[in-house]
Amino acid sequence: MKGEIGGVELRYVALAGSVLTMFVLFFTGYFFKINDLNPLVHPLTLSSIAMVILFFPFGLADFARVKRIEEAERRLPDFLRDLAGHTNFGTPMSEAILRSAENKYGPLSIEIEHLAGMVKLGIPVETALNDFGKRLKSPSIIRVGKIIKKASESGSNTSDVISLVSSFTTQTYLMRESRFADMRSYSTTLATSFGVFLFVIVMLDTFFFPQIAGGGLSGGGVLNLASSSYGLIEKLFSAGVIVQSAASGLISGVFRDGRLTSGAMMSGILVLISIMVLAIIGVL
């Protein structure tokens, strides 16, 4: 199935590949004394790079999986309407499924073609519907399959039941899309707050701390203390930027659909931006 390698979801393959890549890089740096790859020499830099390697591929694969499921759920009412149209004229459910399978429903076609294949093999429709939605691992599609199964078993008003399910599925999808649209504003706020935080840190590292180090600022004990340890403070602020970028991305996933993993790709992107900016100003 698309999105899987050897029966394993692509996101988990990406995660395993990321972990293996990090292990090889850091093992090489540590045992072959390559300072640029040695986590003991550059802990902050390499841990930041590790976040990008870990988050971005996994997040990208998870994002593709979610989009595939969302598209399948968007096309589900179309399939149900076609199915209801066939059964409305007295066509048996098995024949209605075979006819509907001739149409294209995007990612949902995987489930429908599998369902039609089982029907062609002579497997009862009620039994075949037990597997509907399990390849995409979509609770909504699985639930619809169970409802159609019950309607088929009852043998009466099957077309009406399927039509009602189609309408309900459409409304559910539209409501969810509306909620996602509302949540995007919160994600935008998170990204904006991260941008402001990064800008402030850049200004401090670029103008304020060099003035302290060069003795351009004088004053009380606070500045004198900072002058002697501003390098450590720079590192702490840089670490704060990395943590902020990773956390902002993950929280954006929670805002989107309640899952931290939905924000993994955004975390990888924000951490990468942080690494590039901090490296350019020379504090990472």
From TrEMBL:
It is a multi-pass membrane protein. Its main location: membrane. The keyword Glycoprotein does not apply. Residues 79-204 form the Type II secretion system protein GspF domain. The chain crosses the membrane at residues 12-32, 44-64, 185-209, 229-251, 263-283. One of its GO terms (cellular component) is plasma membrane. Keywords: Cell membrane, Cell projection, Cilium, Flagellum, Membrane, Transmembrane, Transmembrane helix. Coiled coil: none annotated. PANTHER family: INTEGRAL MEMBRANE PROTEIN-RELATED (PTHR35402), TYPE II SECRETION SYSTEM PROTEIN GSPF DOMAIN-CONTAINING PROTEIN (PTHR35402:SF1). It is found in: Cell membrane. This is Flagellar assembly protein J2. The lineage of its organism: Archaea, Methanobacteriati, Thermoplasmatota, Thermoplasmata, Thermoplasmatales. It comes from the Archaea.
